[in-house]
Amino acid sequence: MGEKQRIVVIGGxxxxxxxxxxxxxxxxxxxxxxxxxxxxxxxxxxxxxxxxSGMIHDFSELYKTSYGMPRDENYFGKEKNIKLYTxxxxxxxxxxxxxxxxxxxxxxxxxxFPYDKLVLATGAVxxxxxxxxxxxxxxxxxxxxxxxxxxxxxxxxxxxEHAVIVGAGLIGMETADAxxxxxxxxxxxxxxxxxxxxxxxxxxxxxxxxxxYEEGATIYTGDKVVRIEGKDGKVTRVVxxxxxxxxxxxxxxxxxxxxxxxxxxxxxxxxxxxxxxxxNEYMQxxxxxxYACGDCVESVHMITGKKVYAPMATYANxxxxxxxxxVTGGKxxxxxxxxxxxxxxxxxxxxxxxxxxxxxxxxxYDVITAIVSDLDRTHYHPAHKLIQIKLIVDANxxxxxxxxxxxxxxxVKRIDVVASAISLGAKLEDMFNIDLGYAPPFSTPIDPIIGxxxxxxxxxxxxxxxxxxxxxxxxxxxxxxxxxxxxRTAEQFKTKHIKDERVIQIALSDLRDQVDKIPKGKExxxxxxxxxRAYEASRILQGAGFEDVKFLEGxxxxxxxxxxxxxx
Amino acid sequence: MGEKQRIVVIGGxxxxxxxxxxxxxxxxxxxxxxxxxxxxxxxxxxxxxxxxSGMIHDFSELYKTSYGMPRDENYFGKEKNIKLYTxxxxxxxxxxxxxxxxxxxxxxxxxxFPYDKLVLATGAVxxxxxxxxxxxxxxxxxxxxxxxxxxxxxxxxxxxEHAVIVGAGLIGMETADAxxxxxxxxxxxxxxxxxxxxxxxxxxxxxxxxxxYEEGATIYTGDKVVRIEGKDGKVTRVVxxxxxxxxxxxxxxxxxxxxxxxxxxxxxxxxxxxxxxxxNEYMQxxxxxxYACGDCVESVHMITGKKVYAPMATYANxxxxxxxxxVTGGKxxxxxxxxxxxxxxxxxxxxxxxxxxxxxxxxxYDVITAIVSDLDRTHYHPAHKLIQIKLIVDANxxxxxxxxxxxxxxxVKRIDVVASAISLGAKLEDMFNIDLGYAPPFSTPIDPIIGxxxxxxxxxxxxxxxxxxxxxxxxxxxxxxxxxxxxRTAEQFKTKHIKDERVIQIALSDLRDQVDKIPKGKExxxxxxxxxRAYEASRILQGAGFEDVKFLEGxxxxxxxxxxxxxx
Lengths: 568, 568
Fold this sequence. Notes:
2 copies of one chain form a homodimer.
Chain A: E1 6-10, H1 15-26, E2 31-35, H2 48-52, H3 73-80, E3 83-85, E4 88-94, E5 99-104, E6 110-114, E7 117-120, E8 124-126, E9 139-140, H4 145-156, E10 162-166, H5 170-181, E11 185-190, H6 202-215, E12 218-221, E13 225-231, E14 234-240, E15 244-247, E16 250-253, E17 257-259, H7 262-266, E18 290-292, E19 299-300, E20 307-308, H8 313-326, E21 341-345, E22 348-354, H9 357-362, E23 367-375, E24 386-394, E25 400-407, H10 412-423, H11 428-431, H12 448-460, E26 466-467, H13 469-478, E27 482-486, H14 490-495, E28 503-505, H15 508-511, E29 523-527, H16 532-543, E30 549-552
């Protein structure tokens, strides 16, 4: 090249700086410019709830490198030889002249940035629900560091006793957790019938919701905020459709984000069916000299092949690297995504990858699933904790479609294992030959995720016949004449059990001798805390000639309801 | 079937009971018998070091189910309808008559057990090195719960101040850790030139060895025990070839185990090239009515296709399930293994899967590797810890061959991810599209394992030129005229750095301005703690026209040596 290549990046948060830095490493000579509307760049948006919660004391941690360097104009200039313009908004793209027109938001000065390759990393903006009172003081979103600083300032006054979170998505839930850690009472209002509706199946979500309820959070699912009321311009309460008034001093709306595609749209670039910028696997837009990455683009789902909008930090970074390669002459690609997501909420770890059961069924898949409760490491290791894992398999092709998990133990490792397996096209049989590491401080000789695969295989062979906690609850409430056989010891049974006259207790070790005590001709559901003894019991009864025997899948640990059964 | 099927299982520790229990679930009617020479069954051999260390207080935890049921004759009889004979040794197999002859070790009574299907789960026995003094009181192995009880009893006398561990394999290292936790000084003597020679590459092993040394353990690698000396029949010291005398009150030999194949051999069953029982993928021996599983059989390596001997708890359980299926008419299979192994030693987590670099090279592979140092979660999350990950890729096919890792952070998850990927035939490119879960408490937006894949890709593209810590050390000791450029800030540099006149310090942010300070025409090695800034610096220098620039792979965190360089 004679002249130096000019690369202009619009957006300085995650994908943009990553693309710029990668481009720099690939091409030491290019002129690289980042335009960022805000003051701060390269901040960790995912860390904002941890700042509010008080876990991160020093705000600057969120925009420093791991070695303590704030990512500012100086850093980009000195370490990367990248020219960063903050408070500089790109206002239009002249694709023919290959020039970005921008304005300095401080001075009003108009600037022109000619480019050879342009990178759009314009991110997403939070959707602000059109509710009466949304403009009152005390109503926030949590998208930008400035939001976090405002929320923290409000918390520091000591006047916030109760906060309402609108939306039980990931940001809403993490924010609720953060406020809870600051001793603020929280009420979460969610329009759909479960928490984390975009992320978890109802059964796993019910377990999380129950846990949060037991910890002291109030959650109104299937409800919505009608209006926000205030006094002297400050929020004082929220009015919900079903649960009436909630007195509060703070409202945080977290009802999702929208891709910021204004610039791209006005420049005539193709916008996809999801509303985000359409890109090919090289992250090129419909204009081959313009790339886009991060929260403003759409992705392809690895399993369905369909376009999806998935604004997540990992994708932003992956995109950035690929764009950095390609604007400097490379040919890197981004393949599909699985929508893997993990979080820690009220000291519960949750995770999911691939398709959920409901999602898969809605897409027309015939699925077979299994839920297991298990310890995340050997029971004799003092650090062991409980986890529940759900595995979702295509009943026809046996392809692994997804997994979801919840528990105080290590669920994330298992989600990552399944994500790896799905990425490489794993089928059910493959799960049994994945050679996972075992040592007592880390896992069990048969890992819970392999245990989940075994249950699916046992279902296919007819060895395991199960019922889910929700199905059982409905059956009991309906008044079905069934036998609920709890196979723990009498002593273990005493501690906590479903309270209903249909429950009988026979310890597994007595079952073979006392099989005559069980009424013939009825549907039998065997139960125990983990589901293991109940499975064993179901096999004993099936072997003894009982015809309609099921065990409670995932055990009582999946029972996310009151123990007292109220017949309808 | 007219008559009930008779299944006889020889061996009651791991694979045997698993096979029997699975067979019971598959076939409620079969007559199932387990013969076990010892008193205890189904104990957790992997938990023995945790019992010695004092972490597990109640010995019975090691042979109870997770719901507190001791796995004895009563448990097997009542819960499983399996007849367990303890203290009953199988002495021969009459394959024509299909009868196992056994003897009750308490009464001397001879017993015959006719079988339709026989399962050999005879396990392994520790190899006792033929050293003078091996029979002295105070010399132990750690293979059976009885060994652990004896060692604990000796520790409880308070007379054990110093113990010598012979062999730095996994059992030796875990035992050293356990004794160290009991405030016993330990010296480990290992014949090979590194710790965990069967498990880790020398670079990762050096890092572990250095850590243990800094914690206070004495490790003599490349040495051997010549004899053990005693007084009044009790051990008083060990004589080593290179390091002379070690006063001690306890010696534990841990130099490996051998498959227990006596019975199989005498019955004329095929023994494989590894010395273990040869089985097909259905776990059948050369006699189709005799199955074998657990520590007495050989496995197939998933990558090389070669037979290997890999006595591990996970395989025993996997085998047991398959054998349980197949002795009851199923057709389950066991595919190859990757030899995945993980452990916690002196509060360092270590792990490996697949082939190591040295192992792969010895097998004729042309490999490309990368080591990265990284945090296991975001730096702003207080729980973050350091890890080092090494990824090993076939330079020709780009297939992932293996990974090794060490650190106080979560290395096991990354090993499991790679194990999953290798099991499904992953190539380097596939790593970039594995959709791992990210949230600040669990990981970083670009997971360290993906970071390692990136380094390999950067090496292939010529962007990353590296040197390993060991190569650099040799270079410096040899007196090579190189420039060692530390790119931390002056303040960070002060805390800890390589002490040598060839070291110069220029902060990364000053490097572009001060590039003239660096002597031309010399080999330059850039260094920093993690390797990230050093990589950036190497790109700056390469861009500025320096021709021979490398960065220290994995950073100073991989420097397992003294900081003072002693030229040879």
